[in-house]
């Protein structure tokens, strides 16, 4: 993205802050993606981190409870890592003599236990360097607002055109890096459409890859039926969201594969940063 030449303007100060924020957070997304970490998890946030990383005092519990057993053994020894919902369920079944369904309900409703996949993602995130840390929901919201601010900066001419194009490519990249369905985090407009189009296209490839993997199995058995159907569901949700994005603008429905060129443009202006973060591989 590019600075304007009127650096003393208050509007440009806000524009500069948006650029710095967008660059920093987008770098984190790309670096997390390169090392094989799920780069965006919009459903998690600070509250989930507190449930996982803030250990309560043993004396704060008045008796044996689901939350106590999540953090401590029955004899009072601390668990190295709190139990997930899947791990806590059989513990509750054993100690309270309830069925699996009721124990699962207790683990969800009466404790701060997280699903195993979410807990693993948060633990991994906490151990990574800040520069490689993937984004949770609050981080993603900040990134999207920064991209929108840079895209709508109060300038005119070639720089504004270039920034709008770069912002659309940034939105498209975010859509192409999210493996499960997520409504567009951008406000309605070109950025939201770019995200929705690339997100639908990416989920189509994920779904297709799952089908190929299943057909490659001996005797036609499925690798993971639930995951395969979940990918199909996510693709249909993404296509429905894309339809609504286009319909709201009164445009024709485009092909599922986006017609946006992700190759860098050559705008007229002074570049703040020219290196490609993917070169860090």
Q: Which key phrases capture this entry?
A:
281 residues, mainly alpha, two-stranded parallel sheet, 10 helices, 4 strands, 56% helix, disordered C terminus
Explain this structure.
- The protein is an all-alpha fold and about 280 residues long.
- Helices cover about 55% and strands about 5% of the residues.
- The chain has helices spanning about 10-35, 45-55, 65-70, 85-95, 100-110, 115-125, 135-150, 160-175, 190-215, 225-250; strands at about 1-5, 40, 135, 270.
- The longest helix has 26 residues, at about 190-215.
- Residues about 210-225, about 250-255 and about 265-280 have low confidence and may be disordered.
Low-confidence segments, ≥5 residues, pLDDT <50? 211-225, 250-257, 264-281
The major beta sheet can be summarized as: 2 strands, antiparallel
CA-atom Rg in angstroms: 23 Å
Q: Total strand count, please?
A: 4
**Overall pLDDT, averaged?**
78
